[in-house]
Design goal:
The complex is a heterodimer of chains A (134) and B (62).
Chain A lengths: L1 H39 L5 H6 L3 H16 L3 H29 L9 H21 L2
Chain B lengths: L1 E2 L1 H7 L4 H8 L3 H8 L7 H11 L3 H4 E2 L1
Antiparallel strand pairs in B: 1-2
Helix pairs in contact in B: 2-3
The chains are: A mainly alpha (134), B mainly alpha (62).
């Protein structure tokens, strides 16, 4: 009984790692296919469709993450919530202030950096929340 | 909120992992409850009470 429940907790993590790993691998493959297709159809309106090909594995990654969150217990969900709140609000604050400072001459970075900032702050948030409940 | 989860667990000679498995939560959650850094939800508090065969009021004190 004990082992079964321990296994169930581990199974959630294992399943998530398998699914997110598969999604990431598919994302990289789709990205390569997308770049290759866009080179061949540079002037065609189809290029927009090809550019969006990596969205399909991204949707699977979101689905995997939602399944993972549903498998967590209440404290782990709270930790995730606090990390996401920290990440979301931190990104809002930084991007808003950066936008204002751009008028004063700061560089205009690519939008992709916002995603990276979200993820970096999420990782910091997880660290802070885990420490809080240790 | 004060609780006697650690004492009750020790009386039964269970590890945190044993209790976590009985409650269907992670060992980290049991540890956070025992160190009073996290107050469990009402359903989990009832589950804890059921596992120890006590009432919620016996285990958790404001």
């Amino acid at each position: 009984m004990l082992d079964m429940k321990e296994d169930r907790m581990d199974a959630n993590e294992k399943r998530y790692l398998k699914e997110i790993g598969g999604s990431m691998a598919a994302y990289i493959a789709m990205m390569a296919v997308s770049v290759w297709l866009m080179k061949g159809y540079g002037g065609s309106p189809l290029r927009y469709l090809f550019a969006l090909l990596p969205v399909i594995p991204s949707a699977f990654a979101i689905w995997a993450a939602i399944r993972f969150f549903r498998g967590l217990d209440e404290l782990q969900r709270r930790i995730q919530f606090e990390a996401m709140a920290f990440s979301f609000l931190g990104t809002c604050l930084i991007s808003l202030n950066w936008g204002i400072l751009q008028r004063a001459g700061l560089p205009h970075p690519d939008v992709v950096w916002v995603t990276l900032l979200l993820f970096a702050l999420y990782c910091i948030g997880i660290g802070i929340a885990c420490r809080r409940y240790q | 909120m004060k609780n006697s989860v650690r004492d009750l667990r020790a009386q039964l000679d269970w590890t945190q992992a044993d209790l976590a498995a009985k409650l269907g939560v992670s060992r980290q959650t049991v540890n956070a409850i025992e160190t009073e850094k996290y107050d469990p939800s009402l359903p989990l508090a009832f589950k804890i009470a059921r596992v120890f065969r006590r009432s919620v009021e016996d285990i958790f004190k404001a």
